[in-house]
Design a protein that fits this description.
Four copies of one chain form a homotetramer. Chain A is an alpha/beta fold. Chain A is 32% helix and 23% strand. Chain A is built from twelve helices and 15 strands. Chain A has helices at residues 15-24, 42-50, 59-62, 80-89, 104-117, 131-141, 168-171, 175-190, 293-297, 299-310, 320-339, 358-361, and strands at residues 6-11, 30-36, 54-56, 70-73, 93-97, 121-124, 148-156, 196-204, 217-224, 229-235, 243-250, 253-258, 267-269, 285-287, 343-344. Chain A has a seven-stranded mixed β-sheet with strand order 12-11-7-10-9-8-15. In chain A, strands 3-2-1-4-5-6 form a six-stranded parallel β-sheet, sandwiched between helices. In chain A, helix 5 (104-117) links the parallel strand 5 (93-97) and strand 6 (121-124). The first copy, chain A, is globular. The interface between A and B is large, with 37 and 37 residues.
Chain lengths: 370, 370, 370, 370
């Protein structure tokens, strides 16, 4: 098992699973050899489309495959903890999609399980591998901007693909939970993982109130120990396709990195052309098509890194601990929206709270949603 | 006096006075016939440069000039109230640069004085006249974006020109006071002046701590009565020249309007060329020079509007009441930064507070500056 | 007649006449008091829409109006010469839309007529007044780019509004004639009117072959006496709305000025919003709406300049001689496309040629259209 | 030798050799095991920097290494032909940097030699592998733009790194030869390799006349058999760093792809940060730093493709025949500039002409350089 490609089992057959399998197969370090998905037929169809040899409806059966070294979790947030514990017990490395879990306790159990079984628990944050953002960090680390005092990240689109996101029992929250975890992670990582001092969020549900309780718009202000500010903006209510961008400001300079409209080929077409960019509503008229989208997100690089870690060639750049830190930040964020005040960390949610969003929906001190 | 150009007297001879006089003279409705500035020589030099016939060191002397119909206040914030009352008493219309005053009470007195003397009190908010932003509003009002739920405005540069800004006794605050008043006004106006429900600000002093106590970086989240969010970002710590931009998001669309890098002519020069854009550090290397900068800001349009109002041809689009609303928002904003919680409006600052920034610097409940 | 606004008579009631009347009325120097258009009803409808008091079907009747000082020609190219001679004979100043005429001889007669009758003949080139391009010229003249060796201008859209453009008996040519006259004029003016040494054009008819013989795509290379190159690109076959841009390259620097996508507010709308920009196909989806389009083109500034010239306050910046120079360049350009070689100037077309495009369509030495 | 990585020998140790070795080592298919460079010390230094085990001063010695399967030629143009023949005779595959050779006859001999010895001759055109441009081609091939009628490509910077470029005995020409070969190849490839019907170039020497005879600025118009136009712009006289961009126009749409300013992170730095982008003059002030520059150019993809071709897994996408076609186009281009007329292909230069540029410098019919 120590030579050749790292063999991967995939849990999930929806949007993110597709991105991951495609990304694994763009590199040389790993290959996806099995897929598990509970809905009858889903795994088989997915496996056929992406040329995956083995198919399972129960991921626990897949875990019995001896040659599988890494298992990817691309399933609803509410299932992450149990799956992680099962995979760890089977002695396989794990990559868990963001956010890490539903509760802080779950996150702690996941880290503990991986530790006990001696396997890697990678937290699936591709922004740590996004080439354009790495260039920004490289410049910042080289002193280009002097002392950095403000880092911004924003991800916006018109809402997720898979229906479970709209069910807070399975997702735990809305745009802040789904996308804000990227932005908070980004600021934290960009600055070299300083302690997060406080979080403040303003949330609203503007466009999808018919089908969801959660926030579809989120503004989030971070304060780090060294005095640096973060500003994270997220939306499930932004028309016109996917948008991901960062800005960095320091005493001696600044940089803007726009992943979508920035990199795009501004294009007008009467007829359309198949595919423009993630979540684009159309390919006719003016549009901002992306090129080599996955590579520009960094998912192939992220998964190649995991494969090299599995072989002991590199050490994990995105860990369960990162994911746990984000769980704390997300709970603090929803609490701040509920209470209308900044929440200082470390923050311990009231006992019994099982979904971050509840701290907003049931916020004690402040009138809730607009 | 009812025909020919409206005659204007200018109080001030620094940066903003220069912008205003140049802007008045770009149109046909008004002409600046006098300037008053207390520092010996300043008014004379300014008058010579800008071809203004009459010069005063005491503005009260200027107010005796019979033919002057409008007086512009381009003086430190701490002088606005007294000047406005004096001008009103002299029976002349007033345009007062932003922010309106140091305290809410002063603002109320100014409005009252204008009312009593039957003169106009214009609040100098040029963003209500910025052509590019007017196009965004025109589209929003035509329903282009469906129901708007987020409006953003940002103004950033490396700090003001005139030294009084750095003295909080004369300015009352930092970047939030100086620039945030633009952004809050913009969101308010763009949305049709809905009631402002709450304000939350995060402030910091990062770059100019040597010469100033005030905030040089500000993030500000607004919540309006109809549920719409505003996000206002300001900086006195942004390198590379002036930056002013807006974003608008609604259920059916969005728009981006970038006043500086957007409109600019991306230009590289080994030799330089005199002037690029407000607060640009240089004209060599790559730079984003502006064209017809004042027209693109909207100051000539703003002052032509005032002249037409003075003749009864139009009704004021930017009033003392707008300025007063902003004073309340600024006090609430500094208080929110001091207390680490959103402040709901109407907000009454503790009695005795004479400078908005004190509510942050002396914030009771929360450790202050990073 | 020497005080008050300059009174203008308009010949034409189509697209360009609308732009001109609207532009005249944006300033204070002039007012359009009459319109003449031969098609019954057209002038009346136009006059009603734009609030013009007097209406004529025969422009010669309009020329009898004593108070009219300036007459604008917004009529098919084939009518320019006769109209100019009639207006000059009536003792009124003229602004003639581009291109100046159908033949070089006509252009010479027009200049001669104006001279004999002591009236001004302005050539309607608004690029000499386009604010963004003026900034580029200001920088160039300040030495920002060192010695300039390449100037580019490009105007592209999907074809003209008025049907006469498609009839070469009335237009004399296609995209090169209609739009290339702008670009050649721009390079010439930008460089300080150096002698034009040679022209080379490549033409094609790609999209509108069903309804037109003329070129709908043109590439044009200019060589000036001082060795500088010009590159002019034009199209009636560009989808997605109007596009106008320049680039300037010199030994010490360069600049890019993009009038449309550059200045625009990138906007997405599900519903649309009335108007985006000249020749935009729609206002839904992504689009690049313009703000204050006419001002950004420079037409109000151009016409205000004319009014000031009519009063002797300024001297003409765009003359009949400029237009005549362009006629020579256009003939040389079509000849170069016909012959497949650069044509050196001065160039005298073969006698009997009445339309520039004939030199391409009947080009002796080279297979013509693709 | 048929498994493991393809072993590569490099001829050259300057700028392009560095790009190639770095690019080879970004992939898994190939490794550079030897380098040859005649100047004493150069190869050793280069080998040390880039971790290449074997060093030669005479490339013919390197060709004796049994395990080397592919040899890269990154040497002056005048040496390409002899090297190619020697490598072919040694039974190794060849990648030859652009342009292919000095003369058409040389190019024919190179193709013939490769054929006789049964080795691959790859022509080093990375634009066929540039990811952003591949997206444009993918859209075009999907019909997004309808029938394409104009393809543009432009590469501009302030002149090459290696001194031999300035010596026409070793380079054969200037900006048209060095950069125009990219643009002509791009248009040809983008359109599916239609027959090239004619070429017309305008050349000038504006900035580097002190150290070079060749053209440092080139405009080139192509006409293909199917009536499509190409426009290729090149410069060794463009300040501010490297610039590479394309535009595509068709009956139903258009696209713009800007490889440098488009993809960049607009950045301002007081202090600088090591590296911005190829040929950038500085990293202070505003600049357009690139991220993952080589990947965005496509050189790693190009060389991985070659390695796969060497193993029979793919068939060559950029061949000696492509390079030969370009030699014909370059000769026609310089001839057109010398004669002031479009040159139709097939074109046979006068016998005895050994450098393309001579057809311009000695152009019979037209005054040469400005």
């Amino acid at each position: 098992m120590a030579d050749g490609r790292v063999k991967v089992g995939m849990i999930g057959s929806q949007f993110q699973a597709d991105i991951q399998v495609t990304s694994y197969h763009m590199g040389y370090e790993a290959e996806v050899v099995a897929v598990a998905s509970p809905t009858p037929g889903n795994a088989a169809e997915f496996a056929k489309k992406l040329k995956i040899p083995r198919v399972f409806t129960d991921y626990r059966e897949m875990l019995k495959e001896r040659d599988i070294e890494v298992v990817s979790i691309c399933a609803p947030n509410s299932l992450h903890a149990q799956m992680t514990k099962d995979i760890a017990a089977a002695g396989k490395h794990i990559i868990c999609e963001k956010p890490l879990a539903m509760t802080i306790a779950e996150g702690e159990e996941m880290i503990d399980a991986a530790k006990r079984h001696g396997v890697l628990l990678m937290y699936g944050e591709e922004l740590f591998f996004t080439p354009k953002y790495l260039k920004a960090k490289e410049m910042a680390d080289a002193g280009a901007f002097g002392k950095v005092h403000l880092v911004k990240q924003s991800e916006k689109h018109f809402g997720p693909h898979s229906p479970w996101f709209w069910d807070i029992n399975r997702s735990g929250g809305g745009a802040l939970m789904d996308l804000g975890c990227h932005g908070i992670a980004f600021c934290y990582w960009f600055l070299g993982r300083p302690k997060l001092k406080s979080v403040y969020c303003q949330l609203g549900t503007y466009v999808h109130a018919d089908k969801t309780k959660p926030d579809d718009e989120s503004l989030c202000i971070l304060e780090f120990e060294n005095g640096v500010m973060g500003l994270v903006e997220n939306s499930w209510a932004r028309r016109g396709g996917m948008d991901d961008r960062i800005e960095v400001f320091g005493s001696e300079g600044l940089t803007y990195a726009n992943l979508h409209m920035g990199n795009a080929l501004p294009t007008f077409s009467e007829r359309g052309y198949g595919y423009a960019v993630e979540k684009a509503p159309t390919t006719t008229g003016w549009m901002y098509p992306a090129f080599e989208e996955l590579w520009n997100y960094g998912t192939p690089q992220e998964l190649a890194h995991l494969a090299r870690c599995a072989r002991g060639k590199e050490s994990l750049q995105s860990t369960g601990e990162d994911g746990l830190m984000l769980m704390r930040a997300l709970y603090a964020g929803y609490a701040s929206a509920g209470e209308g005040r900044k929440i200082t960390l470390p923050y311990q949610p009231p006992s019994g709270v099982k979904r971050p969003i509840d701290l907003w929906l049931n916020g004690p001190a402040y009138p809730k949603k607009p």
